Structure formats: structure tokens, C-alpha cells
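Lab notebook, bench 4. Still working through the backlog of constructs that have no structural model yet. Next entry is a single chain of 451 residues. Request: give me the C-alpha cells for it.
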Amino acid sequence: MKLYDVAELGLRNLRESLLRNSLTTVGISVGVASLVAMLSLGIGLQRMASRRLEKSGLFDTVIVTSRRDARGFNRDNEEGPSPAESPSLNESARQKIAQLPNVLEAYPDIRFVTELRFNDKPYLSNVAGLPPSARNNDAFDGMQGSFFSSETAPEVILQKSFAQELLGMKPFDEPSMTSLAKPLLGKDLLMRYAERVHPPASEAADAAAYSVVSREQKLKIVGVVELDPDSMRGPTRARVFMPLKLAQDLHVMQPSDLRDPTGPGSEPAYGNISVRVKDPKNVLTVEAAIKKLGFNTFSIIDATHSMREFFAVLDLFLGIFGSLALAVASIGIINTLVMAILERRREIGIMKALGASDVDVRWLFFAEAGAMGVFGGGLGVALGWTIGRVINFGTNVYLKRQHFPPEQIWFVPWWLVLAAIVFAVVVSLLSGLYPANRAAKLDPVQALRYE
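Model written out:
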């Protein structure tokens, strides 16, 4: 019997018991829909977490610190020179790190505590310099106002809690970002800070000699943001941000100037340097190269492996629970085909009497099971896609009511669509094994005597 004849005969038999076969197909589609909906939810959550972390710069950032710092002592198995012989983490070191292969940029972490005056009232806050690349950080997605107009513009962006403090609000008040920013945007802050001043080289008796001079700088408020872009710093989070180049040009006295007094006096010493890597895959290579230069490094590359492991386990369990409904549907396929054998015993007997082999009969029932798998798989993918859309819509409605931005927590990749249909067909064919073998073993004489 030709394959075309087997397929045509199988489809005809499915049409004869349309209601029963349709209900079995619907059972398969429900199983596939639950599988697709659960896996698409797991994939969507993983993509959302990865997108958030990648946009925050955590995946592709290496923090570099000096071994001269007390935090670099008592570290075993480090490459490069010892702390006593290690170089200073200054501008020259930053330029060397920036020229390493696979490094996108290397910028110093400049942050300091200073006095800011608003409406002639003094406020104490931690100020940090931000590079132009910080514009793409997800912390600025819901910012009110605008980013810095240039790298040296005397402008600042305020963190929400400091903006509340300037307006005399209490910490537990929950004003909207719009109402908070409106009375502040365009207003001026007066920053008082200590500048590190080096004497001319012809007058300096000691290369490390410097003096501290009190300065003032007028700054314009151009934006209000809810979070610190570098939110992992805990108690050292900044509440006021200015362009990094401006912060460098001000030569503000920093704690690192006191921790590393042995470095060249003409160059500022940095507490740490943030190194952005072109691809997260190159983080370990860049870390090794920086350690050979004599510095300590830190990255959260290990945390990314842990996150991927977590989502792999999550997807596995979601797939298992989603497959349970498909396992129940396979029982319906077995029941449907066994009933078909009982109803078509005479038909099977006639086919065998006319020369049909056991293989032909077996392929006939396989064709019916496979057809139900294909139709059920396709319908299930469409149903699962619809369920995912509804879940995503409902979640975004809830997030909007809680004043959170919308998120894409559901995603159906093309490989999941193909895998779900193939899985449905495989389960259907496996479910058809017993009915097909039972039909193939029927004695044609006994089958013709049936009824």
C-alpha cells in the first residue's frame, strides 16, 4: 500500500468518527498549549532578567581596584606583582587598561561627599560622576527631565530621595516622579567642595606635595531619576550625579588621595575603575590581563552562570508540568484508536483478505495517530500563544496600576513552536503503538466473522 493511500484512508477514517476524534485532538491541543504557555513564560522571564542585567552594565563590567589599598592585602593566588610592588591606580594605569584588547571603555569611579546648597539651605550628599555611556542604563528609563547636554556641562541629575529632601518631603512620602521633578528642573544648586591643587613642577620640592583649596561650583538641575545606576553600592550610593569629565576637571579631593600618597603627585589616584568589555564572553580574559598589570578585579560573571542554571532548572520543571496534560491526552489517543479497532474489525479483515500486510495495517493506525498529533500540535501552539498574550496583557495592566513600566514576560521562539508540534506528533505515534500492533495482529478470518 502506497504512502498516499495510507494517508488518504487514515484521514477518511478520522472524518467518519468526527466528534470522538475531534475531542481527542482537542485534548492533545490542551496539553501542547499548557506546555507552550509554561515554557514561553520561563523563556520570557529569563529574557527579561538578562535584558535588565545587560542594560544595567553588570554583565559586561569589571571593577578594578589597587593592591596598594588595604582591601587588596592578604589575597592568595593572585597573578602579577605583590601589593608592595604593584603600580598606583592612576590616570596612566587607566589608559593602559583602556588599550587592552576587548575593552570598550575604562573610566574612573569619582564620588565624594560634599555640601550642596538649595534655596540657601545646606544639604550633605554623595555626588558621583557619570560617563556618557550611562545614558543607556535602565535606571534612566523613567527619568524626568533630560540627560547631560555635554561632558563638561555644569549640570546635575538628582536621585528621587534627595529630590524629596530638597522639597522638604518625608522619606515615606510617595509622590509621582512628574510632581517631584516639576518644581526642581531648571533650578540651581551651589556645590562647595575641596579641590586638590598641585604646585607647578618648578616650585614643588616633593612630587607628592599638594594643597587643598575650598571651591564653589554652580550646578543646574536637569533631571530626576528614581534609582542610582550603580545600585550595588549599598550605603555608598550617590544621590547627585554630574558629568564624569566635569567631576575630573574639578579635581575634587577624594579618599583615594589619602590612601595612596606614594603615587605621582601630578596624577590623581582613583579608588576604582570601571571597565566595560565589548562582549560578556571576554570578561574572564580581560580580568586576567588586568591582574597581570598588578591590579585586583571583580565581576559578577559567576552570578550569570548561577542565573542561567536557575532558569534552566525552572524551564525543566515548567516543561515537566506542562507535559502532564499531554500525557493525559495520550491516554485519550489510545482509547480512541482501540475503539476504532473494535468498530472496524470487519474492515481490517477485508483489507487483509485483499492482500494488505500487517505493516500496512500498522501504518494506517500510525497515520491516524500522527494526523491527530499534527492537528492537535498546531492548534495547541496557537492556543498557547493566545494564553501567553492574555497573561502578558493582564500582567502589564497590574504593573501599570502599581506604577511600574510594562514588561514582556512572555516569549515564544520559533524553535519552541517546532519542538511543540514535533513533541505532539511523537507522543501521538507512541500512543498509537499498542492500537496499531493490536490491529495488525487481528486474524482476518476472525475479523470477517465479527458481528
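Notes after review: Residues 358-401 form the longest helix (44 residues). The chain has 14 helices and eleven strands. Flag for follow-up if needed.
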